[in-house]
Design a protein that fits this description.
The protein has 176 residues and is of the alpha+beta class. It folds into 2 domains: 25-84; 96-172, Glutaredoxin. The protein contains 7 helices and 4 strands; from the N terminus they run H-H-H-H-E-H-H-E-E-E-H. A 4-stranded mixed beta sheet has the order 2-1-3-4, with helices on one face. Helix 3 (61-71) crosses helix 4. The longest helix has 14 residues, at 25-38. The N and C termini lie far apart (53 Å).
């Protein structure tokens, strides 16, 4: 049909390597406590999922299953929530979370090239995490700081009016 485009494997980052789940007994115990605390409360599913994300740093299938079983809901319900809300991640995030604003103002002023420079410097693509778990990189639709365009954040630090040339120096502030 005209106007329709087939979806190819390359449209998704299907080759992305995700680290094997490495949850600890302590994390599992914390999650069980969170479930027990909220299980009988109306509307408790979202707070439990948020707590699971805080405990593990992301929502792998193993954690989703624990929440589903503990809360007495289907795995598909948990998956639907964690894939709908952008606050949740299915992949691990690095110690230093880099977010590049890709909103209109930032994009027009070079955010695409800045993202590409971060990808080259870190050896990862948008949505991925470095093997040492030190950095993760994510493009965002808009961070609401258009006056600082192009803008990025690293954890809680915000950098405005950045250029490609500033990327190595920004990264050096977060290397151990």
């Amino acid at each position: 049909m005209p106007g329709k485009r087939s979806i190819r494997k390359d449209d998704y980052n299907m080759s992305q390597t995700v680290a094997a789940f490495a949850g600890t007994q302590e994390q599992e115990q914390q999650l069980k406590e969170a479930i027990a605390k909220h299980k009988d409360q109306k509307g408790a599913l979202m707070p439990v999922i948020q707590e699971a994300q805080r405990i593990y740093g992301y929502m792998p299938e193993e954690v989703q299953k624990m929440v589903a079983e503990g809360m007495g809901v289907s795995l598909s319900e948990i998956y639907g929530i964690v894939t709908f809300y952008s606050q949740f991640s299915l992949t691990p995030k690095g110690k230093n979370k880099i977010v590049i604003c890709m909103g209109t103002a930032c994009y027009v002023l070079g955010a695409g090239q800045i993202l590409e420079r971060f990808e080259r410097e870190l050896g990862i693509k948008d949505g991925e995490c470095t093997e040492d778990m030190l950095f993760s990189l994510d493009g965002a639709r808009c961070v609401g700081a258009c006056g600082l365009a192009p803008v990025i954040s690293v954890n809680e630090d915000v950098y405005g009016k950045i250029t490609e040339a500033m990327v190595p120096e920004i990264l050096s502030n977060y290397k151990e």
